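Please check the following for our workbook:

***
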Amino acid sequence: MTQDLLPISRIPRTGLPAHAVVVGDPARAAAVAALLDGAEEVSYHREYRVFSGSWKGLPVTVASHGVGGPGAILLFQELADAGVRTFLRFGTAGAMKPGIGDGDLVIAEAAVRDDGVTQQLLPPEYPAVSSPEAVFALQRAAREADAPHHRGIVWTRAAFQPGLLPLFSYDGAGLAAIEMELSALLVTASLRGLVAGGVLVIDGANADELVDADATGGYDPHREVVAAGVERGAIVSLEALRLLAEAEELTA
């Protein structure tokens, strides 16, 4: 019955595992779900592809949210309505400062709210911050996986391609990476009392002074070094969920 499904994503109103990895690409959702035991596709509507399964005994939801904050926040809200309480965004990003290499992971401590949607929900002074326990779980999982990783603030920006307007500069602000959806998740989680964080695979350099188009041939996220980082990031995301669930049991 259609009333048993939520209106935008068409996911069930109840029954999803409470711990979720959310990604942009529906194909990446399938790839992460393939790592789970007993994975099943729950639904696939628009860009929202949802799976359930288990990781080392922990029931897990894996869902894709598409590109950009406005569409992604609809999924985050409906997943929360359906009972998801812990979210980790696993995506790709561009490096914003030296020393962060292609295929490295960036664990987000917070995000700049330039996402194109939360500004219409809350004043700009409201922060987009990761849950501390999510940051620590992701860092521990990355260390245990021997995955090159960094912690820092990321810039969530709605526009992917440059336009006629000059790009606001965060030079000197120490931002680690730029991506398109995380701040929408972090704000949603804060408003609803949920646990949320993010880990991003670097697929290129975005800061102007780091880009050497002649050497790199321009933006290409489909290189082997990025694919290897994505494989590591998927394991880190799932293992961090398990660590979070384990900690929840200890404090219950």
Observations:
- Confidence is low (pLDDT under 50) at residues 208-212.
